[in-house]
Amino acid sequence: MSATICAKYMVERYTSRLQLSIRVLPLFFLLCGSLYAQGDNLGVAIIVGENDAWMIETPEGWNLDQRAALAAGLGATFVPEGSFWSSSPVVMYANGIPKSTDTVTVASVIRNDSLKAISTDAGTIVKRSEPIGTIQGVDAEVCYIIRADSMLCEAIAYINGCSGIAIIVLSARNAGDFHNSLDAFSRLVDSYEWITSDPERIAELKRMR
Question: Which of 15, 91, 134, 188 has the fewest CB atoms in 10 Å of its CB?
Fold first, then answer.
């Protein structure tokens, strides 16, 4: 997607949602001032990548654990209420991949992830699922990665942004917890909202870590 087309897309999308933007901006600045100190309580995670920032909202029945995210080097981590990142049989997390070159696309990332999963365990099943719509107005491409022994089941959403690809993952140690958590995963993906690709704002958010 060219910079001109991308900018035009964002203008059209955000012009139609001006009132929502007015409500979101105060929350954005509040989060910037307390990104890691209070983010868990607010339930909204801001994921800061190399070239962009975006936000997702914790689904009902789950908790945001930003301290675990920092320790794991992830953008955000989520666990079921009453669970802990270190011991929960099912978790969700988010991260981003910068579009450093034109070859970094959703298709190429899905292909690389699929090949990596199969090379780790030849019996692993990789299959595409139905896309998930987001309030941003873009669809997330979704893949399921199921290990042969069902001891690792993952749903991975890939969202194409102007300057990066948002990755949201549901990871479970058994098929039961995986299937029971798919609704929460869909709600988390649905909440995706792009914030900025402005280098100065990105740098400011990084300094707040």
Answer: 15
